[in-house]
């Protein structure tokens, strides 16, 4: 059996709000509450289990999602509609832009608990040199 990531716990201010935010952006479903967690399962079976914790203990993390190119524009529209900040780069030096890394599309955005989310249509290093959008 190969090793696969099965799930990860995402600490947040409000488990339901954070799970719904991400599920809405990605076009996924929020699962049923399971103990202290609200799960969101990705297409490859990895579950992000959102857990409410003391906001002072949250350390912002980065979560990147490889998404179909044909779904990128709809997801990006939902990011803009949500009012979340977004950037073309991980250093947040290019606000309100997307990137064209590896010939695809990508954008970084902040979730309600300050986690740094990212959607990309091509894995890093898989294609053309980055182009500025």
UniProtKB/TrEMBL annotation:
| Organism of origin | Streptomyces palmae
Alphabetical list of InterPro entries matching this protein: Glyas_Bleomycin-R_OHBP_Dase, Glyas_Fos-R_dOase_dom, VOC_core
Give residue ranges for domain VOC.
Answer: 4-122
Which Pfam families does the protein's record reference? Glyoxalase
What is the protein's name according to its record? VOC family protein
């Amino acid at each position: 059996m190969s090793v696969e990531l099965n799930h990860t716990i995402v600490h947040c201010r409000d488990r339901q709000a954070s799970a719904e935010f991400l599920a809405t952006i990605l076009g996924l479903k929020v699962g049923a509450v399971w103990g202290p967690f609200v799960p969101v399962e990705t297409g490859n079976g990895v579950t992000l289990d959102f857990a409410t914790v003391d906001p002072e203990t949250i350390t912002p993390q980065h979560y990147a999602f490889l998404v179909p190119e044909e779904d990128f524009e709809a997801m990006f529209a939902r990011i803009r509609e949500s009012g979340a900040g977004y950037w073309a780069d991980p250093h947040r030096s290019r606000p309100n832009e997307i990137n064209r890394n590896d010939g695809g599309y990508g954008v970084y955005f902040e979730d309600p608990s300050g986690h740094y989310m990212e959607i990309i249509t091509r894995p890093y290093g898989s294609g053309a040199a980055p182009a500025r959008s």
